[in-house]
Amino acid sequence: MAQYPSNPVKPTNEKERLDAVQQREELQKKSSYLGIEATNIGPTIMSGRVVDMAIDPYDTKHFFVAYATGGVWETKNNGQSFTSVFDDNGYTIHCGALAVNWVEKVIYVGTGEANSSRSSYAGFGVFKCDFSINDPQVWKFWECLGLAATQHISRIILHPTKTNIIYVASMGSLFSPNKERGIYKTIDGGKTWKQTLFVDENTSAIDLEIDPTNSNRLYAAMWQKERRAWNFWEGGKNSGVHISEDGGDTWNKSASFPSGENIGRIGLSASGNSIYALLDNQEQYKKEEAPSEGLTKKSFQTMTLDSFKNLSDSSLNTFLKQNRFPDKYKAKDIQKMAKKGTLKPYDFYEYLHDENAVMFEDPVKGPELYRSIDAGKTWTKTHENVLENVCYSYGYYFGVVAVNPKDENHVFIAGVPLLQSKNGGSSFTFSGGDNVHVDHHYIWVNPDNPLHLINGNDGGVNISYDGGDHWTKCNSPAVGQFYTIAVDNQKYYNVYGGLQDNGVWKGPNNYNYSTSWHQEGKYPYQRIAGGDGMQIQIDNRDQTVYTGSQFGHYYRRDANGGYAYIHPMHDLKTEKLRWNWQTPILLSMHNQDILYMASNKLHRSRNKGKTFEEISPDLSNGRKDGDVSYGTISCISESKFEFGLIYAGTDDGNIQLTKNEGKTWSNISQKLPQHLWVRKIVASEHKKERVYALLNGHTWDHFNSYIYISEDYGTTWTQVGNNLPAECLNALKEDAITEDILYVGSDAGLYISTDRGTSFQAFSNLPPVAIHDLAIQQEQRDLLVGTHGRSIYKIQLEPVYQSATYLDSGFLFLKMDPLKYSENWGTLSYEWKETAPRKEVVFYLSERSNVTIAITDEKGNLLLEKDINGTKGFNTHSIELKFQENPSNELEKGDLGKYYPVRGKYIISVNNGSQTLENSLMIQ
């Protein structure tokens, strides 16, 4: 296993990260935006990645679910509905592990995901909450038990009888070595911790199991790995199973468990006298291919030149067409090249073997299940054959085995599919369903009814009552993991978004969670592309959508649903293009027939993606040896002031500028911090020479925030946002109306500046979730927030605009849009609910004070008066327009005797004790 040199970028230490949490909290307390609402507009049905669950043994309808980036949710009705319970811990909602003491009703959450993916976010240790009192307020009182430097926690084990003894398996940091990894133990309920198992700075504790027959015996799975932005070494000789016989105080490595450089992630599960270990074996092997009709990519991997020359033109042309070779390649021309010796058969295999192929086709042995019946002294592999198409080449993402507590021969393994064995792992059967997502991370078997299963995967939660033949999906939480979002310009505009492993979806901006679609037959959001959903561009002339999946596999989707694949290709015998996981695409605002796509080079199409031309050289620092695509363009931006003025940022730290449509390029990032990921580059909407840059150190475990502004095309840069906490920044949006307003999204929230970045205020009414993208629907003045864990939020921007102009007055009451009259107001629905209109009243207070809101009709008759406790900053109160009296005899009486407004003008006033402000409300 390779040892990397020291990181050129220093990882953020524990103190700096904890200081950042405190700094964020202070910004939230002082924010002017405390009362501005953020409305979650879903979607929910596709859910997000589940990492752990805890099921109540006394009531299996009651369980907790931990989502990788979406927090912890509780259900008491078997998944029909959920409540978020972890949002108020004050630190993070990025989760790794759960454990619950069901007798004392205490839950423990280990933060920071263990799956080691691109978007596995670091946590802040272990948190505890006592929920013995049946009151939702208990979820506001989480206690941090320390271990913040562990960053990623894979497992928490509670001692079965001694409540103060807790074990934690720590992964440590993801992209850098550190010593805070291994097994930790506390004997005082988390007041103090002792690291009892440590191997080295690159070997993580990926799983931990306690022997159900002997609580002094524990098994720890240790995993040697090194991840960098360009490579992932997924195994090493220090991987293995360690065993403790004294309650986790001392450990010995099992000598009989498989060892070597290819030993990857290991999962553990015990039942009775058996302990199972699911091993990811990274050893390469030659996979036997089933015969196929016609030519395939692998046909050319070992084909001789003589065999190639004997191919018929028709079969070769069919192969070229099926594999989307450029039209210039025809069989006759290719055969001429082969005869001249300028082309070999292997060149075809090499040409098509891209980043997706590396994930799914490079053959490694993959998952192997081992079993011990003598407390880990000896291990036996349970099956003879290689388990193909289970984890492919990326077993680091899975590693979960679960055994029936009452039947040690009944075992499940989780990979891309969910597999089940009833003979101790000798053979397996598929246990998914047509409504069960792939990529599994949790499986629970009911000890009293083995047909009752609960499964967590990249698509949320599923429950089965027939042993896995049929499943119910339980996806009401809005926990979608969005990479990107976009909006169109329709009057009732749509929102688009690309999600982790859940494709690209389109839906209405006014979505409210409801199950009424079960009756209507159509979910309000619709999926328009699959895979890992990536960037989206919308041609506003005809609603053509450009989008797709990872590594630049994009499509043009016409309004009528037609698809065309768009993906620039290199020439045969030339160096492959390198594509970022989230490949940038951009429709030119000057001509929407022009589409830009970026690999390590910038490509331009003048005909909607039908053909492309390269308009740049390699803009990165070049190829870096590894198994992860790196040295790629990560973002592009075009100036609205001049066609051909384009910026491109790369994942290895370059920002490149062309002022002449790509004829020449200049590197403008040499005076900026080096080696950081250029997350965003934004050409200003207000000034031709102005440009913004976001730099991100996530792939170095460096979490500082970096925003730079240039007023001279990047010749000089000024760092802004100096009051932001040390949180990686992912998204930046410049306001199109007011040039001094900036919005930025970090790994933990949203921040707003009204002075062009000199200072920022926190937007407080969001959970501490990673924000990956921002979009503004300018006509409606809505900010859309794409989160990687809590779906999409919508924020009305009028208060922000007002705050930038009028806050010095100390008291502000925002104007209200007209309300559309309805004849249904006051009538009883079939649900026996009286329909009543509501209107949001938004006002700003410089200090906390009591406020009176009053409503009068146009003649001055008082209809409603309400006292509220106003808080400092913006306040949003929803007022129900339902009145007790009808002083003017003009209101309409409802079915239950209350009175409702008619068309006309009404006056709403807000009094802060010393001043009264009024606004008119028109009901039309």
Question: How would you characterize the overall build of this protein?
Answer:
The protein is mainly beta. The protein has 4 domains: 47-286 and 363-473, Methylamine Dehydrogenase, Chain H; 297-360, no CATH class; 492-806, Methylamine Dehydrogenase, Chain H; 810-923, Sandwich (Immunoglobulin-like), CATH 2.60.40. 7% of the residues lie in helices and 37% in strands.
Number of domains: 4
Report how far apart the termini are.
Answer: 72 Å
- Parts with pLDDT < 50 across at least 5 consecutive residues: none
Here the CATH topology of the largest domain equals Methylamine Dehydrogenase, Chain H
How much beta, percentage-wise?
35-45%
Largest sheet: 4 strands, antiparallel
Could you name the CATH class of the largest domain? Mainly Beta
Number of helices: 8
Gyration radius from CA atoms, angstroms: 29 Å
CATH 2nd-level architecture of the largest domain: 7 Propeller
Biggest sheet, spatial arrangement of strands: 1-58-57-56
CATH superfamily of the largest domain, by name, is: YVTN repeat-like/Quinoprotein amine dehydrogenase
In short:
The chain has 924 residues and is mostly beta strands. The protein has a 4-stranded antiparallel β-sheet. The protein has a 4-stranded antiparallel β-sheet with strand order 2-3-4-5, with no helix packed on it.
Write the layout of secondary structure elements.
Blueprint: H1 14-30, E1 39-40, E2 50-55, E3 63-67, E4 71-75, E5 83-84, E6 95-101, E7 106-111, E8 126-130, E9 143-144, E10 153-158, E11 166-170, E12 182-186, E13 194-197, E14 203-211, E15 214-224, E16 226-227, E17 232-233, E18 240-244, E19 252-253, E20 263-271, E21 274-284, H2 305-309, H3 313-322, H4 331-340, H5 346-352, H6 355-360, E22 364-372, E23 380-381, E24 400-404, E25 407-414, E26 418-421, E27 429-430, E28 440-445, E29 453-457, E30 460-464, E31 472-473, E32 482-487, E33 494-499, E34 503-508, H7 517-520, E35 526-529, E36 537-539, E37 544-549, E38 553-557, E39 563-566, E40 585-587, E41 595-598, E42 602-605, E43 613-614, E44 633-638, E45 646-650, E46 655-658, E47 666-667, E48 677-683, E49 691-696, E50 706-710, E51 718-720, E52 729-734, E53 742-746, E54 750-753, E55 761-763, E56 771-777, E57 782-787, E58 792-796, H8 798-806, E59 811-813, E60 838-845, E61 849-857, E62 862-870, E63 873-880, E64 892-893, E65 899-900, E66 904-911, E67 916-923
Antiparallel strand pairs: 1-58, 2-3, 3-4, 4-5, 6-7, 7-8, 8-9, 10-11, 11-12, 12-13, 14-15, 15-18, 16-17, 18-19, 20-21, 21-22, 22-23, 24-25, 25-26, 26-27, 28-29, 29-30, 30-31, 32-33, 33-34, 34-35, 36-37, 37-38, 38-39, 40-41, 41-42, 42-43, 44-45, 45-46, 46-47, 48-49, 49-50, 50-51, 52-53, 53-54, ...
